[in-house]
Write a structure and sequence with these properties.
Layout (H helix, E strand, L loop, with lengths): L13 H7 L9 E8 L5 E4 L2 E8 H14 L3 E6 L17 H11 L5 E6 L13 E2 L2 E2 L1 H18 L3 E4 L6 H11 L8 E6 L6 H6 L20 H13 L3 E5 L5 H10 L4 E5 L1 H12 L5 H15 L3 E4 L2 H8 L2
Parallel strand pairs: 1-3, 1-4, 1-12, 4-5, 5-8, 9-10, 10-11, 11-12
Antiparallel strand pairs: 2-3, 6-7
This protein binds ligand PBG.
């Protein structure tokens, strides 16, 4: 019998470490988010998200060609309309920014899986995720418009829709309208467990979707709760969600792990803008090694149980993995 267990035997060289590594990052699991804006020739860096840009449709196509070349497989599209209005009408208009972008992408025959975000906050003057009545988002009116948004995205050619609004009953409403219109094969990835997080701040700069009054605590989950998150997941699966998402990722690894254990659908995790910005800021200051920290963060999200990761590091990861 040996005196003690020698763990260092399996840590001795890069070869043996590679051989026994349990979790590995792969581009197969990565979804890269993109923000589409009106006009032409726009490529505008977001100051709180270095190396990340708002893109007009023409520039988006160029970007997607590069993304395809890099070996990425899937993208998640957000849109900023030419004009916001009270009813957020661009989000469900067949001529809306996302609908036009998706059509253009499909015309270019790129080998990329196109997922579209479904929410109203980029489209309403209030910056809220739905229609406001008496200072409060009207749930049932909003889900009618969200389902119209999903349908028009899919009619334009979207491969999958991802509702991020956190209204009750929206997965069911979207599933029904898609099925009624012949799109029963189009999957829904639900932002089922989306927390009322302060980590979204840089995205709200990027998507110009900061609420003009109040906050999103009336619909997003309170960060102290996990049982509510599990109920949300269960409900969304019953309503027809094919993939469920936890968002943000890093401060919610316990949620990812629990959800993975409990449910038998793929689990996605959104490595959000604030998580990206922190690493970028740290590395700009010379305090952190961007590549090492970002890869460790993504690996942690995967080890916790995420099958898919949505991350602004997507393009960098492709370069780091050398594909
Ligand atoms: C809502 C939406 C948000 C994000 C994705 N979809 C912002 C919010 O809820 O305020 C955040 C993404 C990120 O921070 O990276 N449409």
């Amino acid at each position: 019998m040996e005196k003690f267990k020698r763990f260092r035997r399996l840590r001795k060289s890069p070869l043996i470490r590679d051989l026994i590594r349990e979790t590995k990052l792969s581009l197969d699991d990565i979804i890269y988010p993109l923000i589409v804006v009106p006009d032409k020739k726009v490529k505008k860096e977001i100051s709180s998200m270095p190396d990340y840009y708002q893109l007009s449709i023409d520039m988006l196509i160029e970007e997607l060609k590069e993304i395809e070349q890099l070996g990425l497989k899937a993208v998640l599209l957000f849109g900023i309309p030419e004009k916001k209005d009270e009813m957020g009408s661009d989000c469900y208009s067949p001529q809306g920014i996302i609908q036009r972008a998706v059509k253009e992408i499909k015309k270019n025959n790129l080998n990329l899986y196109v997922i579209t975000d479904i929410c109203m906050c980029e489209y309403t003057i209030s910056g809220h995720c739905g229609i406001i009545k008496d200072g409060y988002i009207d749930n049932d009116e909003t889900i009618k418009l969200l389902s119209k948004s999903a349908l028009t995205h899919v009619q334009a050619g979207a491969d999958m829709v991802a509702p991020s609004d956190m209204m009750d009953g929206r997965v069911k409403a979207i599933r029904e309208i898609l099925d009624e219109n012949g799109f029963s094969e189009t999957p829904i990835m639900s932002y089922a467990m989306k927390y009322a997080s302060s980590f979204y701040a840089p995205f709200r700069d990027a998507a110009e979707s900061t609420p003009q009054f109040g906050d999103r605590k009336s619909h997003q989950i309170d960060p102290g709760n996990i049982r509510q998150a599990l109920l949300e997941a269960e409900t969304d699966i019953q309503e027809g969600a094919d993939i469920i998402m936890v968002k943000p990722a890093i401060a919610y690894l316990d949620v990812i792990s629990k959800v993975k254990e409990k449910f038998n659908v793929p689990v996605a995790a959104y490595n959000v803008s604030g998580e990206y910005a922190m690493v970028k800021a740290g590395s700009k200051n010379g305090w952190l090694n961007e590549k090492a920290v970002a890869m460790e963060m993504l690996l942690g999200i995967k080890r916790a149980g995420a099958d898919l990761i949505i991350t602004y590091f997507g393009k960098s990861l492709a370069k780091w993995l050398g594909k």
